[in-house]
Amino acid sequence: PVISRLQYEAPAYAIDQVTLEFDLDPERTRVKSRMQVRRMPGAAPTAPLLLDGEDITLQSLLLDGKPYVYAQTDGGIRLDKLPETFALEIVTACSPRGNTRLSGLYMSGDAFFTQCEAEGFRRITYWPDRPDVMSRFTVVLRADKSIYPVLLSNGNLRSQRPLDDGRLEAVWEDPFPKPSYLFALVAARLVCREQRIRSRAGREHLLQVYVREGDLDKTDHAMQSLMASVAWDEQRFGLSLDLDRFMIVAVSDFNMGAMENKGLNIFNTKYVLANPATATDADYQHIESVVGHEYFHNWTGNRITCRDWFQLSLKEGLTVFRDQEFSQDLAAQSGGESARAVKRIEDVRTLRAVQFPEDAGPMAHPVRPDSYVAIDNFYTPTVYEKGAEVVRMMQTLVGRAGFAKGMQLYFSRHDGQAVTCDDFLAAMADANPGSALDTHRQQFGLWYAQAGTPRLRAQGRFDAASRTYTLTLTQACQPTPGQGEKQAQVVPVRMGLVGRDGAALAFRAGDRTGRGPEALLVLTQPEQSFVLHEVDADPIPSLLRGFSAPVILDDGLGDADRLILLAHDTDPFNRWEAAQRLALSRLLPAVCEGDLKVDAAYLDALRAVLRDPALDPAFKELVLTLPSEGYIAEQLGEIDPPRIHQTHQAMRLALAQQLQADWEQLWHTLAPNRGYSPDFADAGRRGLRNLALTHLCLLGDAQWQGRAYQRVKDADNMTDRFDALAALVGSRAQLAEAALQRFAAQFAHEPLVMDKWFALQAGAPGAEIEAIRALMRHADFSLRNPNRARSVISTFCQGNPGAFHRADGAGYAFWAEQVRALDAINPQVAARLARAMDRWRKLAPPYAQSAEPVMRELAAHPGLSADTREILGKALA
Ligand code: ARG
Ligand code: ZN
């Protein structure tokens, strides 16, 4: 059934308090729930109480101590003719061992874990499983002490004692009312790293990171990140930790990245475990941002939660924005202001790589969706990353201080409540009366309501006589499924002017009194002209600085203008953007017409960047990294993935050849002078140096490939070791096979490292399906472990377009087979993989033609989950 946003009805009953007792057993766990229920003021006395339940067995139900008749519903039970307040006791049983969906209570190895967001709690007990029902939870856990010596749940440990039968009993109490999706428990053999901290407010807290024995030496970075998160939220937003104890637990079988359960965050091991020998710089970065993200949810998500799942971006968009700001601030501590820009560029690259295609395809949906079949399908780049851009635009419109005021008002109005995206926007606007956000608040709300990426077109005219520059901006947005007509949105355009000599040109914008180097234009009409005054020379406009809005910009500039911006713009984002556009304007004609021209002007510009001592290595690396194949595909009317891949490779080879002397120079000058640190500066040097090695290997030069092999053997950190291995595999070096074998032998017992090893091969240029099948026959491959399944199958189907799309359609047949196999085990993971074919209609012949029958046959398979069915249905509609 399709759930619609406008169908929302407030719950008729509140459950003020609940005590859950778990007798944990892998085959059959018994759950006794005792609830204090109260009819909501205003609800009809006849209103039924609806309880969700899925894959659980009801054993008894008592109302005020007596058996009570209930009715079965689709997906739960219903109680009628209820008193105004009552005690409800329900006993159920479930099978954690049989729970391969990893939603609800499940086993990972020999241990119990839970994942309740969005609708996993109903797989544990009968409950009104919706985020606007908030309760105080007391949790009693009982389990065999010899196998599960650690028993954890949300909040504070009230007591723990051994029972006569060899079991351990722990009682946990969470002082804060919370929705069921934030419930969690863990029963396992674990060890933990502990840290006591004192908050700015003077309160003491215990921080813990729990992992399996043997992984303790990989917890330092997660703990450092957690401490930094606590300090940052206090400093930037005045938000302190509200619990005595805050726990992170790592689990190796997990559908997503991590989960913000109150006081007991549960993480995919991938986002906790790191030491220099096993984790790359990118892993360190991800851990920092995910630890921050989940911690920041404690206020934006847990203290104030979502009224219903359509409001998911209320917590996710805001929390992604917060984790992005956190990472920027931390990067700036070690790398200065340019580190901020590097982080911003990386975030925009992700947005364009994953969200823009989504917004242009069959799954396009507003940041606040209007309907869904399976809510798990809507944990998307649109809700997360575009949602974060919407929050960022608010900050741009009201300023940093205004944004902080808005946050304060949001908390003073809504702490402890389940609210909507509109409530957040209202708090921001109300806290900043007279701001552009306040003035245009209604129209700004379209960012939540309209799907699709708006396209901006800019045209400028300089008038020397009046010293004015008139910038005309137009906006339009293509129709998306269910939304034929689009209205103009509020688009903040940060901009400056650059002279032909590269110098910044000052100007006076509209009503502003002073002359300055930059302005914020707020576009609200389909077409609007802005007159800039006191402009001394014909300028090149530098528009959308810092990517001030998630739009596609047609700036109408030519190569010459872009070369100037690349060399001189004071805005680092737009310098990088100029390089991307210069690359695109060479790549796109080559994809269409076949002849790639890499001209001297472009090469000289890149060389100048590489040689500029004032530029950050991390920034140089970004400038020298071509737009991804996926992003190139989005620029084209018809997609021929192998052709895009060949062109992309040809361009990389050209850069390798033409800049060879510079790559060699970089390799030598960037040699490290001390041991490994994952900080911004060191990681940036490593990244650029390894990019140099990658290019040098591409040349096929035996000497450089030999050097790479040497590094696979004796690098002192995983970044250098893995980048060298990737350089060998990516250049199809003869030594690649031997290097892969060496690497596998060395890291056979490190699952996260082996995930990289699997992924590297599944993503290798020219990977054949038989090679993918061979990886799946590896003794360490398992379809049941999401990380491992993704490392091979998703990497091939979603991360290797040049090899996956084949004229014979064999890639599609493989994809369909794996979606079916995964769907029977874990629909959430299968539905993600199903999205590999989102853009099939844009594929050039013969790809689209061979994809369609395969997709139709898969969609017709009767046993398919609602999750996967929803994705395929939209793709084929
Ligand atoms: N709230 C989690 C996070 O963003 C993600 C949970 C996703 N769960 C799901 N079933 N899709 O940090
Ligand atoms: Zn989140």
TrEMBL record:
Respond yes or no to whether keyword Plastid is given for this record: no
Please provide, alphabetically and separated by semicolons, the GO molecular function terms listed in this UniProt record.
alanyl aminopeptidase activity; metallopeptidase activity; zinc ion binding
The Peptidase M1 membrane alanine aminopeptidase domain covers which part of the protein?
222-432
The UniProt family comment states: Belongs to the peptidase M1 family.
The biological processes this protein is annotated with in GO are: proteolysis
Cite the InterPro entries for this sequence: Aminopeptidase_N-like_N, Aminopeptidase_N-like_N_sf, PepN_Ig-like_sf, Peptidase_M1, Peptidase_M1_dom, Peptidase_M1_pepN, Peptidase_M1_pepN_C, Peptidase_M1_pepN_C_sf
Q: Does the keyword Hydrolase apply?
A: yes
Pfam families according to UniProt: DUF3458 (PF11940), DUF3458_C (PF17432), Peptidase_M1 (PF01433), Peptidase_M1_N (PF17900)
Residue ranges occupied by any Aminopeptidase N-like N-terminal domain in the UniProt entry: 99-182
Concerning CDD domains, the annotation shows: M1_APN
Give residue ranges for domain Peptidase M1 alanyl aminopeptidase Ig-like fold: 452-554
Peptidase M1 alanyl aminopeptidase C-terminal domain location, by residue?
559-877
State which Enzyme Commission number(s) the record gives.
3.4.11.2
- The top EC class, named as a word, is hydrolase
| Record key words, sorted | Aminopeptidase, Hydrolase, Metal-binding, Metalloprotease, Protease, Zinc
Catalyses which reaction(s): Release of an N-terminal amino acid, Xaa-|-Yaa- from a peptide, amide or arylamide. Xaa is preferably Ala, but may be most amino acids including Pro (slow action). When a terminal hydrophobic residue is followed by a prolyl residue, the two may be released as an intact Xaa-Pro dipeptide
Provide the protein name. Aminopeptidase N
Task: List the cofactors.
Answer: Zn(2+)
